[in-house]
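Tutorial, part two.
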Amino acid sequence: MSNSSHNPPPPRLRWPRYGVDAPPLPALLGAAGTACLLAAGRRGPGRKTMATAGTVLLANTGIYLHTTLHGKQRVWRRELDNARLKGDERLLDLGCGRGAVLIEAARRLPRGRAVGVDLWSKDQSGNRPEATLANAAAAGVADRVDVHTADMTALPFADGSFDIVTSALAIHNIPSSQGRYRAVDEAMRVLRPGGHLLIADFWPMAKKYAAHMGHGTLRGLGPGYWYGGPWLGITLLHAVKEH
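Running the prediction step on this input gives:
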């Protein structure tokens, strides 16, 4: 287990804790929903409208929190199982955050290596390398996990270094389309010929990545990966690097 940031040893946890994606958003949804329901409790016109709006907003909050705390992990467990890993592969997770995908992958790599890179932005609560390493230790896979502070548009790895590259809701955070396409190109560069690329992102973004690459299949990941509703559902781009 390594950490290129040279931070203190990670704290001990009883089980992994992956935090909340974009925490201000569910907080805002929940606050708005509560405000609408409080307004609906007052006398006056528009009570039914406010009650309906509040119910919808709180339902969206609940779906969002279910996805970020449970749903996405279930989806990635399924997708990693479907990848039929042999157990000795080298896997790279772009924008690994606190390790939800990285650690699920590491569980399937008893003789392999799971490597995560991130710039540790505030897009996820408690996002820092120490948290990722602590989660790896809690999951019992610290011996096969490496974490690096690195930019996914300029990866510090040689060509063909990995058998599989994953990314979950990370590439869209790059502000420019050129930067996002560079990240996709870098992912393909570090893949070995015949290696697999799995990118989960919002549908418009995933569609653009596929168009940029000129190949790959797109598939919706279902209600378990809805951030509030189907309008913020996640699509998986799967591509295989040509020999």
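The chain is about 40% helix and 20% strand. In part three we will examine how such features are distributed along the chain.
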